Amino acid sequence: MRDVASERDVDRPGTTERVVTLDVNGRSYTLRLDTRVTLLDALRDRLGLTGTKKGCDQGACGACTVHLDGRRVLACLTLAAQAEGRAITTIEGVAGTEGPHPVQRAFMDHDGFQCGFCTPGQIMSAVALMAEGRAGSDEEIREFMSGNLCRCGAYPNIVAAVREAASGGGYDAHL
């Protein structure tokens, strides 16, 4: 087996592979990837972090929302190579040593999920919108969460969960 880290010269003519180092949830991973691999596919297929969901794979549903340097992005529209050298936080990295993140706890308290498929993306967006200072009202929460779709229609519970977590104040996306 070849040492991936020593193959920094993979940018040879005719190849679309390169070595990419991803900093995910405070841990560094060095991968040899095709330059066209999305961050979503690298997280799920190469790193086994399956909490980030593949919904539409077109940037329309928000199920793949992760944080890149503390800002929410759609992992299905972001190339893994674009994330190199940046801090990536997935749903697996949101909880602290004390237990679930306040948004996760509020989602549980308010039944902010039904089937649960969209929940990781919803939570990642909620954590980020609170850090952005955009959880001042239910209308604002709905507007800034509108890129995250829920097929089950748990929107009232999601808004209630975000409102409760935001009312605690002080939470940010830079975990």
From TrEMBL:
Example GO molecular function: 2 iron, 2 sulfur cluster binding
CDD domains referenced in this protein's UniProt entry, alphabetically: fer2
Gene3D superfamilies cross-referenced by the UniProt entry: 3.10.20.30, [2Fe-2S]-binding domain
UniProt domain 2Fe-2S ferredoxin-type: residue ranges: 18-94
Metal-binding in keyword set: yes
Pfam families for the chain: Fer2 (PF00111), Fer2_2 (PF01799)
Keywords annotated in UniProt: 2Fe-2S, Iron, Iron-sulfur, Metal-binding, Oxidoreductase
Name assigned to this protein: Xanthine dehydrogenase YagT iron-sulfur-binding subunit
TM annotation in the entry: none
Pathway: Alkaloid degradation; nicotine degradation
